[in-house]
Amino acid sequence: MTDNNQQRFRFSEAPIWELQRTYYEELGMKAWNNDQVPQYITSNPMIATAYAEMIFGFLRDRADRGDIIEPVTILELGAGAGRLGYHVLHKLCELRDDAGISLPPFRYVMTDLPMKNVTAWQQHPAMQSYIEQGLLDFGRFDAVHDTELNLVVSKNTIRPGDLKQPLLIVANYFFDGIPQELIYVGEGKIYESDVVIEFPEQHHKLKPAEALERMKLAYEHRREPRYEEDTYPYRDVIAHYQQELEDSHILFPEVGLNCLERLNRLSTSGFMLLTADKGDHRIDNWKFAEPPQLIYHGSFSLTANYHALQHVFEQRGALAMFPTQHYKNINVGCILMLEAPASYANTRLAYRQFIERFGPDEFFSMKEWVDRNIESMGLQQILSFWRLGGYDAEFFIQSAKRISNLLPEANDEEMLDIRAGIFKMWSSYYVMEQRYDLALDAGLVLFEMDMYEEAKFFLKESVDTDEDEPVPTVLYCLAICCYELGLDEEALEYTREALVLEPDHEEALALLKCFE
């Protein structure tokens, strides 16, 4: 180790946060390639549907108040790979169109710290129709400093007081990854819990992910009177911790609270927050809490202090909703920092139905079981879970082989449901830089069901978009589809292409004889 390899920092000012920023700014969208940084649990179609239902309820509540002229801005913080925003907007538009009722107009604004992500969203094929309709915009937003929103599509800037409707904020896996204070409560006193970092050798030459994982962290306390001063803006919640806690380390979201207050100033009507994270809203979960452990996944994350958010805004008249049951994987909350928040009946009922009764946490717990037991599931069970998850592409990829194995015993109705599910899945598929080819798997399942026209569409999509050389078997399947559909010239062309790549392909050779 080098000399002076240990340094002490206030937790919120430690270099781990700058490494976190650098990691995301350097990698951009590649941070989520093949789930290097987890995204599924907070970005799948099921949680997006729950959010869309709550936003729809909120729009209905605003309409019931007669506020249908001014647009509602839906602002997503830390939008990352963009998948959640796309699914929420897709489902919200479906709900709006199906309902056919008067609602205020809305626009969805996706933001993140790296400008690389903003550029990638703006260029993503799935986003284009929403951009053209004026329903989607983007911007870079720094949660630590920014006081306004600069939008890249409309070129507008949203400044304090510009919004007449409440701002609707979506923040998934956000509060756990931005700077936080670390305090220690002991004998009724508040201490700053500094972090002592032992740096690895040559740490300046390491990539951010490597440097983070190789650091060793320890904690030391020192008295910090500022938290106990009457001028400290969050004095009430700190006093609550002094009274209720002992020998406890508290991650305190001062930056997160400041961010919400800055965003609140953009609107003259308050805000609604939808948030999901590894976060605790029960004070009992902070009792005797040990120093935090960084969870590494390229970057790192911590446990979000939802109790502090709830306490602070409830003291200011907000209505906060968190599950009454204990969460296992993800905690989903809603804070209505609005005038007369209890009057937002449609919003509250949507939370009760889509989060409280059965929500994203319960769904993910079930998915963990399904992941382990997919090979013992029947077709009806697979179809039911696929439907429950909003025809999720990742689940289809995972279950395609099992579906294929069950097809010989499938009846016509089950095969028709598979077909319908594939098209519903494809209509809302958000392409990411992942390791699988959805079109290929969909095409092969349809091919095995003798649905040749549908199989041809997906198999051709796979061949046309795959940068690698086509697989001869896929070309042969395309040839069979064309042959069964009476498209002999196309069938012959695909057969010849397959044989160029694999001259001894027996099935292709046999098919070629049919054209002689």
UniProtKB/TrEMBL annotation:
<dbReference type="InterPro" id="IPR038375">
    <property type="entry name" value="NDUFAF7_sf"/>
</dbReference>
<dbReference type="InterPro" id="IPR029063">
    <property type="entry name" value="SAM-dependent_MTases_sf"/>
</dbReference>
<protein>
    <submittedName>
        <fullName>Tetratricopeptide repeat protein</fullName>
    </submittedName>
</protein>
<dbReference type="InterPro" id="IPR011990">
    <property type="entry name" value="TPR-like_helical_dom_sf"/>
</dbReference>
<keyword id="KW-0677">Repeat</keyword>
<dbReference type="InterPro" id="IPR013105">
    <property type="entry name" value="TPR_2"/>
</dbReference>
<keyword id="KW-0802">TPR repeat</keyword>
<feature type="repeat" description="TPR">
    <location>
        <begin position="472"/>
        <end position="505"/>
    </location>
</feature>
<dbReference type="Pfam" id="PF07719">
    <property type="entry name" value="TPR_2"/>
</dbReference>
<dbReference type="InterPro" id="IPR019734">
    <property type="entry name" value="TPR_rpt"/>
</dbReference>
